[in-house]
């Protein structure tokens, strides 16, 4: 199995102003790496999932996620937004955005990733480390160590 997150899936300067824009920016990175076969189809699946319930959580975090027939490999993308993006959290906009892409019928791995990530993101020190990371490789290393124990 390929790595869940790589530097190619990280954008430390998301410029979009809304959730669809930043999610599309991250999804394009996944598509460029062959993890998403049909970008428009995957984005439609993400919008459908987001319409069910917003994916923002307290602490300035957005975790858009979806299972999709358009995803070829479980993948985690990450973006940081200086201005913040509304993902529906009660405490305001998200500055840390994780995109979880899971293949349709791929089991519950994305739920395991979502749970592990959400638990770690409850810690201010982890969130601050993500905000302070100077490059994509630092984010990848941090996520692999802190979330997946690698």
Automatic annotation (TrEMBL):
Signal peptide (UniProt feature, chain positions): none
Alphabetical UniProt keywords: Phosphoprotein, Phosphotransferase system, Sugar transport, Transferase, Transport
Keyword Cytoplasm carried by entry: no
Subcellular location: Cytoplasm
Residues of the PTS EIIA type-2 domain: 3-146
A molecular function GO annotation: protein-N(PI)-phosphohistidine-sugar phosphotransferase activity
Listed GO CC annotations: cytoplasm; membrane
InterPro entries, alphabetized: PTrfase/Anion_transptr, PTS_EIIA_type-2_dom, PTS_IIA_fruc, PTS_SugarTrans_NitroReg
Heme recorded as keyword: no
Gene Ontology BP annotations: phosphoenolpyruvate-dependent sugar phosphotransferase system
PROSITE patterns xref list: PTS_EIIA_TYPE_2 (PS51094)
Protein name: PTS system fructose-specific IIA component
Lineage: Bacteria, Bacillati, Actinomycetota, Actinomycetes, Pseudonocardiales
């Amino acid at each position: 199995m390929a790595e869940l997150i790589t530097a190619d899936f990280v954008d430390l300067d998301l410029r979009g102003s809304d959730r669809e824009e930043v999610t599309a920016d991250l999804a394009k990175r996944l598509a460029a790496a062959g993890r998403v076969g049909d970008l428009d189809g995957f984005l439609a699946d993400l919008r459908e999932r987001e319409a069910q319930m917003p994916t923002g959580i307290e602490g300035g975090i957005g975790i858009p996620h979806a299972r999709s027939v358009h995803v070829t490999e479980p993948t985690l993308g990450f973006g940081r937004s200086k201005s913040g993006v509304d993902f529906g959290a009660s405490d305001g906009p998200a500055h840390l955005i994780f995109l979880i892409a899971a293949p349709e019928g791929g089991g519950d791995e994305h739920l395991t990733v979502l749970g592990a990530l959400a638990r770690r993101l409850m810690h201010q020190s982890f969130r601050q480390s993500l905000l302070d990371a100077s490059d994509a490789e630092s984010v990848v290393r941090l996520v692999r160590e802190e979330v997946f124990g690698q």
